Amino acid sequence: MTSTGVGKLVFTEGIMDHMVCLDILHNNLKDSAKTLTLDGNFIFQHDNDPKHTARNVKMWCLFHSKQQLHTLPQSPDINIVENLWATLETAVEKHKIRNKARLKQVLQEA
């Protein structure tokens, strides 16, 4: 999330682990930065969730993002991602969602 918008919303199947996290970063971070016209000038922020702190994810981030900001998990005062999750949750609660396709649609519109 930036002052100019949010990056690509990626949907996954199953349980997200460090390999899925790494795949999402590898396939989406640079494109999202380009779409948001960040020109490589951004601070990548993630919390201390185990999938974010796995060695392979940390190494990938070290080589692919110039600056990183590490924050505590579930700390909305210092972690803007928690506020984004709250926005998505509010959007979902406004609809009677009965299937995955509708859920994806509501999340993308939020």
UniProtKB/TrEMBL annotation:
It comes from the Eukaryota. InterPro entries: RNaseH_sf (IPR036397). It comes from Araneus ventricosus (Orbweaver spider). This is Tc1-like transposase DDE domain-containing protein. GO terms for molecular function: nucleic acid binding.
